[in-house]
């Protein structure tokens, strides 16, 4: 089975790409969809929110289901649900039916990636873990950048339904590969369902994501109330997990320094890089006056930097180790974000493309390093709970990044009395996002030299 590990990792990467792409790809299609549904584009935001909330609510269930029913059964079932829900989205004729379809799609996505990652972690030896994690993590970098321009192209030259029907061949291929690559078995864990732990955890994730979205829209009282409720539920979930003999989601992995750094510092960094694909298209269209297509093509230079760096990430980590890479490359990533605050319409396009390309390279390196470090010291028996925790924090970091960037942009506009965001407002937003990356860098300083070195054996 170990010889199939690269293929299983590639399979999980495809499902990860599907899940992340569908979180962002409809953003540019909202106006056309709104006309077809006879609603406003703002009302259609429920399609994005419903998807993200469904993912957040059901991620805590993924580890328990995989242990209870077997990873192959849950993974294949999640792919089927995600694909069928995508078909339903494409055939939607009303906002209500579309919202239900997106919820089902979110449930499938919530179970696909954590369970798929768990399979990879269980069959991969420690010395090969970095290479396998590299396979899995690239969609997390590519999908948020590729989603908006891909959605724009489909809408411009086709119809919005193709955004969802694209998942049909991918889902069928992934399902066939699952039956070939992942053996039957598992499901021997008969621990009872922890309803209270599930409710606390699910409510915490849902309230935090909803609160962050409200803050991003400028709805401060509702956002603050939801964040407080989310933090309270999170504290209750943590306390419950420490007291319950068989909790839905154990938090014992949080005591491992390398995993803790990935959850805390890694989430802050992922929030920062998820804010960039949100801010850049707005900057290019609103401040630079570019068309949506031109803005999308420029953002693809970030995508090009991600891809260009990917073949070298494993060698760099093996040469210098996790801690040194996170510290040195972290400073480069912060600098790349700060430079975005200095961009102006007068800057020549080759220089602009180079800045975005270098930023994409540094983010790719840091992203892969955090994800590889996260599971370096996790015992095999704790992989299930660690994978679920990781997925929950990953989902939260996506919402944090976009909401934080939107909040920083709105705050600058309010302070300067701007009705529409101007170049100076975007500059302050990029500086604020760089502050998130700086907090992640400070967290990396706490790591001990040689951390995670067992997975970097040559």
Automatic annotation (TrEMBL):
Arranged from A to Z, the UniProt key words for this protein are: Cell membrane, Membrane, Transmembrane, Transmembrane helix, Transport
* Keyword Coiled coil recorded: no
Query: What SUPFAM superfamilies has UniProt attached to this entry?
Result: MFS general substrate transporter (SSF103473)
Q: Which Pfam families match?
A: MFS_1
User: What are the residue boundaries of the Major facilitator superfamily (MFS) profile domain, all occurrences included?
Assistant: 8-452
- Protein location: Cell membrane
Q: How does it sit in the membrane?
A: Multi-pass membrane protein
**What Gene Ontology cellular-component terms does the record carry?**
plasma membrane
The entry's protein name is Major facilitator transporter
